[in-house]
Amino acid sequence: MAKPKKRFICAECGSVSHRWQGQCPDCSEWNTLVEEAPETKFSAKHDLSSGGKPITFESLDVATRPLERQTTGLAEFDRALGGGVVPGSAILMGGEPGIGKSTLLLQAAAAIARNGGDAVYISGEEATGQVRMRAGRLGLAGAPIKLAAATSVRDILTTLAGSAPPALLVIDSIQTMHSDMIEGAPGTVSQVRASAFELIRYAKENNVALVLVGHVTKDGNIAGPRVLEHMVDVVMSFEGERSHQYRILRALKNRFGAVDEIGVFAMEGQGLAEVSNPSMLFLSGREAPVAGSSVFPALEGTRPVLVEIQALIVRLQSGATPRRSVVGWESSRLAMLLAVLESRCGLNFSSAEVYLNVAGGYRLSDPAADLAVAAALVSALADKPLPLNSIWFGEVSLSAEIRPVSHASLRLKEAAKLGFDMASGPADEGQKVSGLRYSGLKGLMALVDRVMASA
Ligand code: TYD
Ligand code: MG
Description:
Layout: E1 7-10, E2 16-17, E3 33-36, H1 75-81, E4 90-95, H2 101-114, E5 119-123, H3 128-137, E6 146-149, H4 153-161, E7 168-172, H5 189-206, E8 209-215, E9 234-239, E10 246-254, E11 262-268, E12 271-274, E13 293-300, E14 303-315, E15 324-327, H6 331-345, E16 352-358, H7 370-382, E17 390-392, E18 395-396, E19 402-403, H8 408-417, E20 422-426, E21 437-441, H9 444-453
Parallel strand pairs: 4-8, 4-9, 5-6, 5-7, 7-8, 15-16, 17-20, 20-21
Antiparallel strand pairs: 1-2, 1-3, 9-10, 10-11, 11-12, 13-14, 14-16, 18-19
Helix pairs in contact: 7-9
The structure holds thymidine-5'-diphosphate and magnesium ion (MG).
Residues 95, 97-103, 134, 137-138, 267, 269-271 line the site of thymidine-5'-diphosphate.
């Protein structure tokens, strides 16, 4: 018999290679390939003359009931989910360790239990005493949650089969679960997949809303949540800087709703508090104008959020390669914007270090941020502060044009409500918003001229 081939699986994306490599050929992550047991081969060909049952085809045009959704008791969580959890669906809750996943889910489970729902919380990481202590701190000790510490999927499913299925089942975390259907230690790609598969099947068959917690980590020893993305209905990401108070819950995939709404929370002494009006959160306490700071009216789903962008330019004396460091924005986008400013507007960043930071631990993904970033960069380079009461938005193209963006009037209205009275953006944005003076910029050069002209 031929020796079974070695198999290396990427813990980030789950792709399979037959030799070890430092970098995954699929997702380009480093040091994520781990050896796993060889796959069982299904070499026998299907015998089509017997065994298979016929399947029935259906038409798309059948009246269906509207989706039933259950509220989690946390309005911000419901909003990010597109209106609550769908019974029988599987949700993957990803996030870095310590960001607050267990806290969020304990709060949601407690709220469901207090509203008469049956909520089961299985902790594979912490002892029940630890979870109880956290619940006490959160003021949830009285909530009738069913709590257990367990890691064996068979034990969990056997126990659950003994009574009516719960409304919510939280597994914290999937990386600690162990299925005896296959070999391997908890946390390996095959164990994580097999455990998730069994739990998801239970949830679908019994109409249970299942939440799997998945740690996102760069450590290749634990399989990341990406290997489960295709198996679940909803992928959520809980984000934020641990050193900052604010946390953002985002849906990255949702089979039952849109993925553009976010939930905003603040981590406080008594757990996560919901922030229902986040538009002011990411403006740091700005009093005097400072060079290198601009305000961008971002849009998250239907809610505008004003964020401060900070840029710092440090001129280098030596010929060392200058650093470009970005927190909260894409570094490739910064490189593009710097290139456009250099080649189309004649500015020189080549011998300077560039630091860009989005205040408050916020992560920007809106392409309309280009102009605000450019304004912060030019202001920092020229050492000219921008007016405190101004906002900037627009997408910048490689030809240095400023492109229109979605929902300009929503952005302008929110800014006017918060006391901003000057806005700069794409030239053809003709909207009139009372109390706000709008200047349309023809191109990036017009921005440079404006910044240079400011006091
Ligand atoms: P946790 O929910 O354990 O994170 P995760 O499950 O994602 O690993 O939250 C951990 C952090 O949250 C911890 O460092 C302390 C902080 N925290 C608070 O600030 N206030 C609280 O009320 C609680 C419960 C936690
Ligand atoms: Mg946890």
